[in-house]
UniProtKB/TrEMBL annotation:
Name of this chain's protein: 5-methyltetrahydropteroyltriglutamate--homocysteine S-methyltransferase
KW Methyltransferase (keyword) present: yes
Cobalamin-independent methionine synthase MetE C-terminal/archaeal domain: residues covered: 432-658
Residues binding Zn(2+), per UniProt: H647, C649, C690
Cofactor: Zn(2+)
UniProt-listed NCBIfam families: met_syn_B12ind (TIGR01371), PRK05222.1 (NF003556)
UniProt family annotation: Belongs to the vitamin-B12 independent methionine synthase family.
Organism listed in the record: Carya illinoinensis
Reactions that this protein is recorded to catalyse: 5-methyltetrahydropteroyltri-L-glutamate + L-homocysteine = tetrahydropteroyltri-L-glutamate + L-methionine
Residue stretches making up the Cobalamin-independent methionine synthase MetE N-terminal domain: 3-315
Amino acid sequence: MASHIVGYPRMGPKRELKFALESFWDGKSSAEDLKKVAADLRSSIWKQMADAGIKHIPSNTFSYYDQVLDTTAMLGAVPPRYNWNGGEIGFDIYFSMARGNASVPAMEMTKWFDTNYHFIVPELGPDVKFSYASHKAVDEYKEAKALGVDTVPVLIGPVSYLLLSKPAKGVEKTFPLLSLLGKILPIYKEVVSELKAAGASWIQFDEPTLVMDLDSHKLQTFTDAYAELESSLSGLNVLIETYFADVPSEAYKTLTALKGVSAYGFDLVRGANTLDLIKGGFPKGKYLFAGVVDGRNIWANDLAASFGTLDSLEGIVGKDKLVVSTSCSLLHTAVDLVNETKLDKEIKSWLAFAAQKVVEVNALAKALAGHKDEAFFSSNAAAQASRKSSPRVTNEAVQKAAAALKGSDHRRATNVSTRLDAQQKNLNLPILPTTTIGSFPQTIELRRVRREYKAKKISEDEYVMAIKEEISKVVKLQEDLDIDVLVHGEPERNDMVEYFGEQLSGFAFTVNGWVQSYGSRCVKPPIIYGDVSRPKPMTVFWSSTAQSMTARPMKGMLTGPVTILNWSFVRNDQPRYETCYQIALAIKDEVEDLEKAGINVIQIDEAALREGLPLRKSEQAYYLEWAVHSFRITNCGVKDTTQIHTHMCYSNFNDIIHSPRIPSTEEIADRINKMLAVLETNILWVNPDCGLKTRKYSEVKPALKNMVAAAKLLRTQLASAK
């Protein structure tokens, strides 16, 4: 019985690749040092999978930055601004595309489907001269082979590559990217023939765009592409891998009729409806790679349930044609549970990170072949049972409160203009009031204080004193800049989700549960394992301390329920919206306590609202309905005089965000004027586009100074226009 892994995390169990990359970028280590770390990581992953008994082990899923950028390099699709003059693409050009350099900006980055991973978007147009410029896929196949591991090389499929691209600057927005298919297929053919020559017997094309809403023209492009590749692919087993959602029935028809293809991979965790399509008809003699182990979460697989699914599929496709797989690449989960020495033992028994999921895939394959590891299956069943019955998971009071929410839509009793009037009487702000988004720069000194407090090296009193001092500095700075609504700067917070999760029940935290977000940047999502509640106030002490330092309004700062949900590993034993409503009730308690403490402006950030948007149009309205409802629950109980703000970042990182550039007063004034063309003066605020945590004070002070000056300039202009 065969087993397969779609892809594996690259960062390493202790983020070895992150540190090697950053050291190389800082000029502290050589390209050779970086290549050595990478080679060691690759060989340990291949060896680990081979030792676990995996038959179809992937290669070329490692990346120094991003797999789409690797494909761009393979195709030689380097934008002209990087002055590449041909030849094999090396680190200099590769990292310039990823990160920019002293003279030119990076390529744009955007979300990879509905995950929290981000990829580098190819910039294409009619004039791109494609050429085979990175032999990485072939090199890594050979590298594994030299280590005695025969792998399945993985390439991003040609059609998905084009569908994920964008027209380059200066190219018509309407340029048909799929028209470039004929120009990139010759390079795919070269890669395939080199892989064949090197001894590959399988090849995997990732075509995840097949799960999207595609029109018939786009589906036809898949048919054309694989018909064109058919003769090059002869003699190879070709797997087309899809993931992240159901494959729609039209796409399923297209996919299963592709020429030259011998195997199809499906996500059966997020795509349970695909099971019905398979049962309704699967092409005879083809392989089914069944993705039953979740690549996007940290829960141990329910082996008995997966075994049942696989057993029924075996009846349809035949014993020798069924391959047990992961639902998608394991890139989106944490690396290895072995490194979690501080996690509670019971909770740990409910989890599986990437290394454990490899073992689960193999255990399922062996069980199907009649070699069931009874001990492994029974300890899995015991962990599943303990999770279902654990009193730590279920909190009756929370369940009741969440169930009671169903009867209302939690809209405020009065209309918005009435509330704005009441708030203005209370706050007495100028037109175009200024504020900031919440965080101020986190200095090395500040991080040291938090670290020492966590390690119990300084007392609670010393810690509180240090944080109060920082808040008073930030308050004084904002007063000196003449900002209208102040913030306390969040010096006590490590992360906008973790800070709240650590104070809510139902959350657990890892030490090494890092997941790649982009490049060398990793995030460590909290784990929501049980019903969520708020044992005591979380931010009231700091916000009221800050308010006592100033006569100006001090804004309370909270992270909203949808963002906490979307940036965590969420329990999979109840619908996501139920968990979201529970978090909303906890935040509601906090909002009302802030109000009682005299905080009149409260910001509830929903930075990740769009991150949870389903891939398919048909499911988006339902998501937005419960997500927005969750937000309304948090603040439906406040007085009319309390002003609620929110902040949303969008998931397309363009060059204006997180940039050290200091915009001039004129530039900011010009931007405000553009907004005034479409918005009423009484609702427009002037603020930065994001928190200032990652910036330096040398950037923040002049930028905010110019921002306030721009707001004052426009106030004067508006007053004289009247």
